[in-house]
Design a protein that fits this description.
With about 120 residues, the chain is mainly β. It has no helices and eleven strands. The strands form two sheets. Strands 2, 4, 5, 6, 9, 10 and 11 form a seven-stranded mixed β-sheet that branches. A four-stranded antiparallel β-sheet has the order 1-3-8-7, with no helix packed on it. Strand 7 and strand 8 (about 80-85) form a beta hairpin. The termini are far apart.
């Protein structure tokens, strides 16, 4: 059974630098492309960052503007999202997702950045 368990959310002050973790189980993590997506109520999921398997180049949503870094540790079956300089508009539910060869979602972790 595929499981993706995110952690690292919470209340973060503007300018903060939290780091998210997503621990995967139930599949061969090293061959999967992974991603982080976010969603605010009433809107669709938005791409935050993706990283391919076997050291492929990461991609980022336009709004990231160099503030976030995605990485992975295949030995730990974990994908990370290091965030910097958080803004109130980054408030959202953040989800871990497998993007290839099949799609699975984590349960999400909420980040709130007060204005």
């Amino acid at each position: 059974q595929v499981q993706l368990v995110e952690s690292g959310g919470g209340l973060v002050q503007p300018g903060g630098s939290p780091k998210f973790s997503c621990v995967a189980s139930g599949f061969t993590f090293s061959i999967y492309h992974m991603g982080w997506y976010r969603q605010v109520p009433g809107k669709e999921h938005e791409l935050v960052a993706t990283i391919q398997s076997y050291g492929g180049a990461p991609t980022y949503g336009e709004f990231v503007e160099g503030r976030f870094t995605i990485s992975r540790d295949d030995d730990k079956a974990t994908v990370y999202l290091q965030m910097k300089n958080l803004k109130p508009e980054d408030t959202a539910m953040y989800y871990c997702k497998t993007t290839w060869p099949s799609i699975h979602w984590g349960q999400g972790t909420q980040v709130t950045v007060p204005s």
